Amino acid sequence: MLTCDVKIRVWYKHTDQMGFVHHSNYICYYEEARSAFMREYGVSYARMEAEGVLMPILHIESDYRRPAFYDDELTVRVLIREVPRVRFTVDYEVYNSQGELLNTGRTTLGFLRKESMRPCRAPQWFADLIRANGGEE
Amino acid sequence: MLTCDVKIRVWYKHTDQMGFVHHSNYICYYEEARSAFMREYGVSYARMEAEGVLMPILHIESDYRRPAFYDDELTVRVLIREVPRVRFTVDYEVYNSQGELLNTGRTTLGFLRKESMRPCRAPQWFADLIRANGGEE
Amino acid sequence: MLTCDVKIRVWYKHTDQMGFVHHSNYICYYEEARSAFMREYGVSYARMEAEGVLMPILHIESDYRRPAFYDDELTVRVLIREVPRVRFTVDYEVYNSQGELLNTGRTTLGFLRKESMRPCRAPQWFADLIRANGGEE
Amino acid sequence: MLTCDVKIRVWYKHTDQMGFVHHSNYICYYEEARSAFMREYGVSYARMEAEGVLMPILHIESDYRRPAFYDDELTVRVLIREVPRVRFTVDYEVYNSQGELLNTGRTTLGFLRKESMRPCRAPQWFADLIRANGGEE
Q1: Triad B32, B37, B42: Cα angle to 5°
Q2: Fewer Cβ close by (within 10 Å): the C or N end of chain C?
Q3: pLDDT per residue of chain C (137 residues) written in tens, 0 to 9
């Protein structure tokens, strides 16, 4: 299994009138954590799009245990178990700076050839990256 | 079962560079559809907060089948099966104006007493509203 | 001068922990009001993009007088004085349902040929639309 | 004059279908840059709210010169000229990692006593902080 911890700061804009981080933002935290994980491993999602491959979201789920607040420095732990073929599944654990687990989630993405808008397999270099760093077949 | 169809227009702001509606917006479409359902039934979520009851999100899930686009007029079908006690579960189906099913989802909310920040039961008037309109015990 | 009143509902997502609508949302209300104005006049911004013309924002300003709140039904008055040539300037007045003026603003947009990413003039049909409805040269 | 450079990463969520950062996000970049500037100087906007002082936005303006893109690491330069009394004016310059100036902006905030929702003066500690770091009277 590949794991990567990403720091994300809560912006004022992310709060709602309950005084908590609005729940939709976690979905964006997951996305930015995926971007940061790729930067960490020397690749980039921008490269994937430049090569003509889009990664649309197919499924998300999220469980909320405790609220996050403005200015919190969150740690989003990205967990990747499997080498992607036609799907890429990522799990997430979101902690606050006291180490409390606030939220867990999962996203499943597909691969889409931009030109034809038809599903395709994960690019070889991307599958290799996950395989080389602990992904299971 | 109680159902309610809510029209939601896609804003330019909701798109991303893939040219689709960014997936996090569906979570907000669900939320606004809940608000609209309550207005439709003559009540208001603002009333609930004014009475000191917050409804934090506990769980969300969402499945994406086809993309939505800028300026689309979506129909969000709100489906409520059960009279809420300590949880309120709502299902969603999102259609475009051609009647294609784009997305399905589910949210589970809790009830929280604002003063004590402790869980509580659904307000009687709210449970009664769902019961009177087809909710099952 | 051309004017058009557009109703916009405040979503829960638009609030922040001050309990007001977060100020950045007015910028999106302006944008959606422009979209709605175009629909009202039988045209569409999607058509403009389909014809290869982008309208990037060049300047925005916004003055905040009173807060808006969750579930408010706002009226965004769109005011267009001049027929667009290489710039399109729109003024806005945002009212709540009590008729109180909450916010005033202005946006200036340019026209950009998508293929070359170079500035261009407003499409003829768009300039004609504004001219025919009270725009001044 | 007090200046502070803040790094802000562009998220995928910040893009729109033009392929650029949606213009409303700059308003949030300004806000987060103000938060980061306060952290840099050992204080916090959360402290201000905890002391019962809100800082609502009164005016914003923003000029867009060049687009920003997904994954860009932006530098937001925060410039504060005057010690705040009943208003706090901040200027911004946004650069990409090639040092190109993308955007300039200004925000003016007021001070509001939370309890009474009436305007008040800047807290002494905050005025002192700006004064001690180059703010002019």
Answers
A1: 125
A2: C
A3: 999 999 999 999 999 999 999 999 999 999 999 999 999 998 888 889 889 999 999 999 999 999 999 999 999 999 999 999 999 999 999 999 999 999 999 999 999 999 999 999 999 999 999 999 999 98
Contact B23 A27 (CB under 8 A): yes
Three-state SS for chain C is CEEEEEEEECCHHHECCCCCECCHHHHHHHHHHHHHHHHHCCCCHHHHHHCCEECCEEEEEEEECCCCCCCCEEEEEEEECECCCCEEEEEEEEECCCCCEEEEEEEEEECEECCCCEECCCCHHHHHHHHHCCCEC
B31–A60 C-beta distance less than 8 A:
no
Q: Closest CB to B35: pick one of C31, C44, C71.
A: C71
Which chains border B (3 or more CB–CB pairs < 8 Å)?
A: A, C, D
Q: Chain B residues with CB-CB distance to D under 8 A?
A: 12-13, 15-19, 22, 24, 70
Chain C residues with CB within 8 Å of chain B CB = 9, 11-13, 28, 31-32, 35, 39, 44-46, 69-71
- B16 part of the active site: yes
Round to the nearest angstrom and report the end-to-end CA distance of chain A.
11
Scanning every residue of chain C, which has its alpha carbon at the shortest distance from the alpha carbon of A15?
A: C16
Chain D adjacent subunits, 3+ CB pairs under 8 A: A, B, C
Contact B46 C13 (CB under 8 A): no
Place of tokens 């905040």: C64
b (16+ CB within 10 A) / e for C55-85: bbbbbbbbbbeebbebbbebbbbbebebbbe
The answer to whether D60 contacts C60, with C-beta atoms less than 8 Å apart, is: yes
Chain centroid to Cα C71, Å, comes to: 21
Residues D93-129 have pLDDT tens digits of 999 999 999 999 999 999 999 999 999 999 999 999 9
